[in-house]
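Handout for the seminar on molecular recognition.
Each group receives one record of this type.
Step one: identify the two inputs.
Step two: read the structure output and locate the region that could contact zinc ion.
Step three: write two sentences on what you found, then compare them with the reference statements printed after the record.
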Amino acid sequence: MSKKAVLRNGHRPAAPVSWSHAGGGWIEIVVGSMFSGKTQELIRRLRLSQIARQKVQVFNSALDVRYAKDHIVSHDLVKTPSIAVAKAKDILSRIDGDTQVVGIDEVQFFDADIIAVCEKLADEGRRVIVAGLDQDFRGEPFETTARLMALSEFVTKNLAICMLCGNPANRSQRLSGGKKVVEVGAADKYEARCRRCFKRS
Ligand SMILES: [Zn+2]
């Protein structure tokens, strides 16, 4: 089969067919604390796919209203267009048949169906790139992120730098706000902290 072959599912392969199984897809997940560059890394991977003329679609949760509903935005304000959905399963109705690469940002904001959605998209032969927090503000794992890390082919764990001592930081310290596990916010509400500087609330 030549490099430009169209796969059974109609997609062109992301890599030469000799590298990947024809029709195969996979899940990549980028996790870490706040300010560890997860969204930046997601956007970087999506850009490379676009340069390679692959069809890319990006989704975020309608819960994530920090910047804009039709874009995902990293803290340094690099942004890329996205579709905001209320429920994980809405991704399946909004996905185009010829989409080869699917980006999902802030996966912890989605309901638990996001796991089955990612699995389905990958099983259909798509490259699925997911980014999200692996721990909540209490330092407890997010269930959906943890499960997706187990199911993904590729896991990247980003670390931030502790804003108090400068050590590698894998926790997000909430500075103010309530006890809700999902509290949307950025620099004004959270700080990256290492395990020694992190205070459990
Ligand atoms: Zn520290």
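Reference statements: The helical segments are 38-51, 90-94, 114-123, 143-151. The longest helix spans residues 38-51.
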